[in-house]
Amino acid sequence: MRYLTAGESHGPRLTAIIEGIPAGLPLTAEDINEDLKRRQGGYGRGGRMKIESDHVVFTSGVRHGKTTGAPITMDVINKDHQKWLDIMSAEDIEDKLKSKRKITHPRPGHADLVGGIKYRFDDLRNSLERSSARETTMRVAVGAVAKRILAELDIEIANHVVIFGGKEINVPENLTVSEIKKLAAQSEVSIVNQEREQEIKDYIDQIKRDGDTIGGVVETVVGGVPVGLGSYVQWDRKLDARLAQAVVSINAFKGVEFGLGFKAGHLKGSQVMDEILWSSEDGYTRRTNNLGGFEGGMTNGQPIIVRGVMKPIPTLYKPLMSVDIETHEPYKATVERSDPTALPAAGVVMEAVVATVLTQEILEKFSSDNLEELKEAVAKHREYTKNY
């Protein structure tokens, strides 16, 4: 399974092409639209979410509600593009129109300046348009397709915020993936502790009044994962490493950890390693899950627990200082559009990229020309690992 995304923030449409999806997978636009709506939700979102109401259109690879095994093409129309026809025109236009909304003031924390230097732009809009978090729309769409495959294999996935702008959310112990998914869905700030809901909302409101932004930490949990995904034989075959790359590739994500994560650096080995158990009913399990479902770069059958840290959104309504690329004079950075936080939405994106990487690994390991063949292969593998 491989995919590409294309499109700009204010361009006519966003596109994704996925290849390698098994034939016979039940798939409808609503399966995708549900997650696209989740990505646009959450407390603290701003103007763009009121403009766009994302809906996907299949233009290949799906017929009569099922995948055909051919490449799947998905489009999402940017309604806001109608206001940007000249500015985002693919055809050459007059110089006076080119200068309209030309950006020469790079924003700290964005790709504006470095992208301009790399690709030799005199208008930083070229950097802004593609590096925008709007691109994650299609990664969520791809992830929604991946989640349909995971669901057929009885693999559950959910996300929730565990640190919101420095405020740690006390998470009840031993929650199942289903319980996390249900509780987070009931929360506008995507937390599982309802007692903290209003406190977090009030904090977001204050941050907005201050013209500032906040980040935090999102946790994604996956249950029902087969044993042995990934490999120890080469560095780039380790699945936790592939997941780490995918998570950090999300806009504004700056770090990732599994299980105890960085806390393991403060503990002794006897406090970290997960003791191995066996029973005829469950096969091999672990007494704890401090390693987050991985040993040697491979899944060990425990739930995958992965966390990503998102920095505060860099666009501020009280803008930081920057430098004009034409005059080299100091200037307050341009404000394009911003939210005080996008943590709940970022969790949806993180869930999508984790689902995508896991699905890619599953489709690589197991026979997967069609869904029936894939389900049979995974069931046989699970029976083998249980009785090993």
Please characterize this protein's 3D structure.
This protein has 388 residues and is an alpha+beta fold. Helices cover 33% and strands 20% of the residues. The chain is built from 12 helices and 17 strands. The strands form 6 sheets. The protein has a 5-stranded antiparallel sheet. The relative contact order is 0.17. The model has no long low-confidence stretch (mean pLDDT 94).
Core attributes:
388 residues; alpha+beta; 5-stranded antiparallel sheet; 4-stranded antiparallel sheet; 12 helices; 33% helix; globular
Quote the average pLDDT. Answer: 94
Percent range of helical residues: 25-40%
Number of contiguous helices: 12
Sum up the overall morphology in one term: globular
Largest sheet: 5 strands, antiparallel
**Secondary-structure element string:** EEHHEEEEHHHHEEHHEHEHEEEEEEEHH
**Low-pLDDT windows of residues:** none
Task: Specify the structural class.
Answer: alpha+beta
